[in-house]
Amino acid sequence: SLVLSVFAISVDCLKLTKANWHAAVSGKTAFLAFIQPGCPYCFKMAPDWQRLMDDFKDSKSTVAAVVDCSTKEGDEICKEQGLRGYPTIKHGDPDRLQVYHGARSYDELKAFADDNLGPVCGPKTIELCDSNRKKLYEQYSEMPVSNLQTLIASNEEKIQDLRRNFAVFAGAWARKDDGEVRKKNNSIEVIPKTDPNYAAIAEEYEMIYLDFVDTMTKKLAKEKRKIDDAVALIETSGLNIMKYVLLYRGTGDATKTDNSNKEL
């Protein structure tokens, strides 16, 4: 049977979402395939990726998995990764993933994994952390669980505030767009159909509107990048480590994390 209609993988594969991310990757190197329905290259790669996941399904140091970018849960991860096409394979420290540029056959994938993947900085492997992350792991490990939970909640609220702010920003532009559409249509409607310059005048109004859309699109994209960067900074500067520590201390439920690694 299939987990994904376009990706011929077994039901016991590891499919990552925002819900199980921290539980699945904590202290491990990741080797992840980001996929989309309708992607022929995803389908072509599926059998080899399945073999790779089977090889590492019991690994204590490496997680090989898929992220389905067509789902709401997977799409959030995919947007954070700034993907440009599918499939995209990334590897390394889960908080600092790098794009894999090698071949996609099983032999090449397995050889790369064996040569390059292994334990990374985590609550069980603090000795592998750089000085900054080691300090954070030690700080959060010594913090009372209730304080750590409160700190996580506070940081997650900051992220939600950022996203709400963007929603307000985007909503304001959407309303302005509605106004510009009405303005354009009203301007065109009052042009006499018998005016020999009707087409040229109408086209001019259309171009004015398209210039507005182009400006709006660029401003929305700029604001979205700013929000995404701010969210990433919160996560990589401490929030992810807080969640890894809380999971390691056996209180992962407080992170709103679903520890199930199998999501169908």
List the defining traits of the structure above:
single chain; 264 residues; alpha+beta; four-stranded mixed beta sheet; 4 strands; 57% helix; flat; disordered N terminus; disordered C terminus
Can you give a write-up of this model?
The chain has helices spanning 21-25, 40-56, 72-81, 106-116, 131-142, 145-189, 198-248; strands at 29-35, 62-68, 88-92, 98-99. 25% of the residues are buried. The chain is flat and about 80 Å long. Mean pLDDT is 85; it is low at 1-6 and 252-264. It is an alpha+beta fold. Strands 2-1-3-4 form a four-stranded mixed beta sheet, with helices on both faces. The protein has seven helices and four strands.
Summarize it.
This protein is 57% helix and 8% strand. It has 264 residues and is an alpha+beta fold.
Oligomer: single chain
Physical arrangement of strands within the biggest beta sheet: 2-1-3-4
Radius of gyration, whole Å: 24 Å
Give the helices and strands as they follow along the chain: HEHEHEEHHHH
Helix content percent band: 55-70%
Straight-line N-to-C gap: 11 Å
Q: What's the pLDDT, averaged over the residues? A: 85
Stretches where pLDDT is under 50 for at least 5 consecutive residues are 1-6, 252-264
Strand content: 5-15%
Number of helical regions: 7
Largest sheet: number of strands, sense, barrel closure: 4 strands, mixed
Helix/sheet category: alpha+beta
Query: What characteristic shape results from the CA principal axes?
Result: flat
Count of DSSP strands: 4
Write the layout of secondary structure elements.
Blueprint: H1 21-25, E1 29-35, H2 40-56, E2 62-68, H3 72-81, E3 88-92, E4 98-99, H4 106-116, H5 131-142, H6 145-189, H7 198-248
Parallel strand pairs: 1-2
Antiparallel strand pairs: 1-3, 3-4
Helix pairs in contact: 2-4, 5-7, 6-7
